[in-house]
């Protein structure tokens, strides 16, 4: 499909709320969620390290800068993805990534409740993001 046709169809696709799923679209949207999670958790972690672990002040400044950049990342999702759905689905991704970050960087050990909660959150991600819409 020519680029001009895609540009003219973009408002109709955005208004429909239906994301045209292909393997590439699935990979791209999940990559954007992963990128957003790493930015938000990474920025928050840097601030946490500065405020609670006594790291130098520039860790906090760096964390704030990363968090500011994070705010733009969800806008990279497809035009048909609404703000509310993107952020709701991202919430589930954020939960799972937060546990993973804590385990890898801080040595946290998730317990059964953490595993169960993370699984429920990821199940919600799959349902909300990939539910067939018309």
Automatic annotation (TrEMBL):
It comes from the Eukaryota. The chain crosses the membrane at residues 26-48, 57-75, 87-105, 112-131. Keywords: Cell membrane, Membrane, Transmembrane, Transmembrane helix. GO terms for cellular component: plasma membrane. InterPro entries: EmrE-like, UPF0060. It holds the Pfam family UPF0060. This is Uncharacterized protein. It comes from Raphidocelis subcapitata. The lineage of its organism: Eukaryota, Viridiplantae, Chlorophyta, core chlorophytes, Chlorophyceae.
């Amino acid at each position: 499909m020519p680029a001009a046709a895609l540009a003219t169809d973009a408002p109709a696709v955005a208004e429909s709320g239906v994301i045209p799923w292909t393997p590439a679209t699935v990979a791209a949207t999940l990559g954007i969620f992963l990128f957003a999670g790493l930015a938000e958790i990474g920025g928050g972690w840097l601030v946490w390290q500065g405020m609670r672990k006594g790291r130098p002040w520039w860790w906090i400044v760096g964390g704030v800068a990363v968090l500011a950049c994070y705010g733009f990342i969800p806008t990279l999702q497809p035009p048909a993805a609404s703000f509310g759905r993107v952020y709701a689905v991202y919430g589930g991704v954020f939960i799972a990534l937060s546990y993973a970050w804590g385990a890898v960087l801080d040595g946290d050990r998730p317990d059964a409740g953490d595993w169960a909660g993370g699984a429920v959150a990821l199940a919600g991600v799959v349902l909300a993001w990939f539910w067939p819409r018309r």
